[in-house]
Amino acid sequence: RGLDAVAITDHDTTAGAVRALSLQTGVLIIPGIEVSTKDGHVLVLGTTKEYEPGKPARETIAEAKADGCVTIIPHPYHYFRHAVGLRDRKALLEADAVEAYNSRYYIGTANSKAARIARRYKKPITAGSDAHDCEYVGFGENLIEAEERSVEAILAALKAGKITARCTKTPVSTYLRQSKNNVKRKIRRQLARLSRTRAP
Description:
There is one protein chain. By secondary structure, the chain is an alpha/beta fold. It has 2 domains: 165 residues, Metal-dependent hydrolases (TIM Barrel); 30 residues. It is 36% helix and 22% strand. The chain is built from 6 helices and 8 strands; from the N terminus they run βαββαβαβαββαβα. It has a 6-stranded mixed beta sheet with strand order 1-2-3-4-5-6. The protein has a two-stranded antiparallel ribbon with strand order 7-8. Helix 4 links the parallel strand 5 and strand 6. It is globular and about 55 Å long. The mean pLDDT is 89.
């Protein structure tokens, strides 16, 4: 899709980001992680460290900032997506940025509320593809005025608010295909757990 950089933030692991960093793709990889905190999901960019899930969101944000990372609250008001904004609004104040455009939300009310709150508190607004597979990458785009194409420069510009977010909704057919694949993966994981439980 003509992207200069891609942030890889898998749930509670940096294994995918670490692997991507080892590949010669021509696309700048921004390593990170999507941490499942007690209050919902928190994105941490600029790290290969795996943060412990289950802690309060603000504690995770403080730890990540102490490590020199950038923190973003994704989908903060979506009722079915581990939304920090519904549980701890103060966490939005402490994060570096707020995701206000998520390509997977068709109704748009959660995105609109996130954008409104981000502007009220003067937080940089980001967009996210929320991609769980390569073909879904790029529906959420961020135009960042960085001094150079490096992880450090991009994250510094993001924190400074030198960013314009834009989003195209994920096509319904793509979304449905992803949802079907997610269900299959969950069933396989559940069956694997049952097999391990029954093993002598």
